[in-house]
Amino acid sequence: MTATVLALLLLLASLVRSQQQFAASPFLTSGNSLFGTYIEGAAVDSAGTVYAVNYGGNNDRASIGSVSPQSPFFSLRTAATTSAFNGIRFSSTGTVYVADPVGRRVLAGSSQGLADARSICQEPGMIDGVPNDIAITTDGRFLFVSGMRYTANTSPTDGQLWICDAKKGRAKLLMEMGRTNGIEVSPDNTALYISEAFNQNSQVVSNMIWRFDLDAASGAISNQRLFVDFTALDGSGGVDVDGMRTDIMGNLFVARNGGGEVAKFDATGTLVAKIKVSMKYPTNLEFGGVTGTTLFIVGRCESSAFGDGAGCVDTFQSDMPGRAFTELQMLAGAQPAPAPAPPPAASSISESSTPAQTSAYLSAPPAQASAPSSPTTLKPSVTTPTSPQGATTPSTVNPMLTNELSPLRASKSSILVPTHWGIAPLLFGFLYLL
Hints:
Elements: H1 2-18, E1 21-23, E2 25-28, E3 43-44, E4 50-53, E5 63-66, E6 71-75, E7 88-90, E8 96-100, E9 105-109, E10 118-120, E11 133-136, E12 142-148, E13 159-165, E14 170-177, E15 179-185, E16 191-200, E17 203-215, E18 220-229, H2 230-234, E19 240-246, E20 252-257, E21 261-265, E22 271-276, E23 281-288, E24 294-300, E25 311-317, H3 323-331, H4 423-433
Helix pairs in contact: 1-4
């Protein structure tokens, strides 16, 4: 009797823990999006406005626009062979950083529209595809950049991890790895996360996330250890990791490009939730909106091929605000809007150098183990949005077109309610009969 009860309780706990499946809501679709299929680099400013690259359609790879309202922010008006933007980050100093893997540089600017944009951290040792994405320390001093050379058979030198000193404008190579992509800093600035992937015979065969200890004062990283191996986790090593973001509790949200979902991990590396999205290829994500709790997920629309179609955006209402939004609000001297209480159903929830493989910033070899100033005023404060209406297509868009906002209406797909709660009453009823 006792053994049966314990077994059923363990089964219930397992179901509650392992089947937290949620769904995001479509926000920008192929019918109203002004972004192209190369949409990437979701980032937030201190007002909660979220931005992404490839605004205005597929012909402008070096452009940035806000997601809500859809509005142009910056464009180099240059050929994609010269520049193509990818990652974006806003800093506490009011500077915007943009990863340009074609130009092999980071662009930095602080004025509206980045009219004062300048190149920093442009180093000869950067391989094709670097920098791809950016992580930033709270004080804005250090940028960590990832990037990869995409080949049929990935070598251990096809990806790189660089540190960029934003004050000096110089970069240093920290590591060569497999394909590096998603990158993020923990909210307490003590950990750096980076993804690594490998191809074999033109097929993706492995995806992992590594965690390093981080000394934010010096930018030094150490104690590399495995955070998650997706092949061991659920057999999804063939689905690429793309953009990654943390919330203020240290949870890591990971875009699974090709898997049509976002995975949520707690700080110990435990998978706590999966969020299904409307696009198969989500590329990046960021928390924004008036309280910083709306997760914006960007990616190529389901019906679109690269270079032919639109970029989509989904939203998901989280229970905690994002790290970037919260830090920018605090450092700008603003008082962040209080985050809503979690719903009961979700309660479980120097000089440049190019070393061969590591640098002095790495003080210990990797050990594979289970891991447990002035405000940015680039956009006015906004209310959390719903899907804009009446947007024109990219081919006919007025360069200064904006779309009105209206408050976000919660839908069943965006409420934090696990899909498996119907199992619990059955099990408890069975226990009662015993």
